[in-house]
Amino acid sequence: MLEFREVRKQFQVAGKTIPILDIPEWNVNQGDKIAITGPSGSGKSTLLHLISGIMKPDSGVITLGGERLSEMNEPARDSYRSAHIGYIMQDFYLIPSLTAKENIEMALSGAAKGKSRRGSVDEWLERVGLKDRGAHKPAQLSRGQQQRVAIVRALIHEPELVLADEPTGSLDWETADEIGNLLLELCGSHKQTLLVVTHDLNMAERFPATQHIHQINRMNRTLQVQEDVAI
Ligand code: ADP
Ligand code: MG
Predict the structure, then answer these.
(1) 76-108: per-residue pLDDT in tens?
(2) For residue 65, is it within any domain?
(3) Residue 31, class by beta-carbon neighbours within 10 Å (0-12 exposed, 13-18 middle, 19+ buried)?
(4) CB atoms within 10 A of CB 18
(5) Quick one: pLDDT band at residue 190, thresholds 50, 70, 90?
(6) 40 in ligand 1 pocket by Cβ < 6 Å?
(7) What sequence ranges are listed for the domain ABC transporter (predicted)?
């Protein structure tokens, strides 16, 4: 459902070009649940930004759900993302002035307000153990509870592809464990694809598949070789 061919991404910083990603070939099948691991600065977030269409590659082809994402303009990528992708970030990004329920409702389009195919917002809140917390604002929730709200917000429109960038990075290990389990449980359907970037090896172990960024990114492989030689 996702294909990368000869994809490159680089950044310009102070007049210098810094290559970050060089992905000759990478394929993800529908229904795959993959934990992507790798050191800080190795391009994991950049990879998710390319998949979600937040960024465009400098060259190469990204195909998602049969569509050439890398050839779409920004508005087309934005609308593709809101229809097909659920995105969960390390720091939740809930709107502080809105309640948990209102934060979730924002993700539902006009026609679907209040109800998704898998039930109402209240049913979703119950599913993630927040039955009595719908009227709470983010500051009145624990960090783990805030992440649960962010997860419902990302999943309620039933995206084919769920991307999570270090979803447990700012949580204590016990809460991180619960959130990892919850993500796998909620995205358990054979149709839903889940890609989670994490350096929580505990969580990665729970996934049916783990890929190190060096397996995907040739750039890092070269860096890795240099590091190895240096050692
Ligand atoms: P990771 O998520 O694996 O920690 P990132 O994908 O965030 O890594 O970043 C990879 C590298 O690209 C880092 O060295 C980072 O400094 C650099 N980088 C990321 N975004 C930008 C940007 N917008 N401009 C310049 N450099 C960036
Ligand atoms: Mg990152």
Answers:
(1) 999 999 889 999 988 889 999 999 999 999 888
(2) no
(3) middle
(4) 11
(5) confident
(6) yes
(7) 2-231
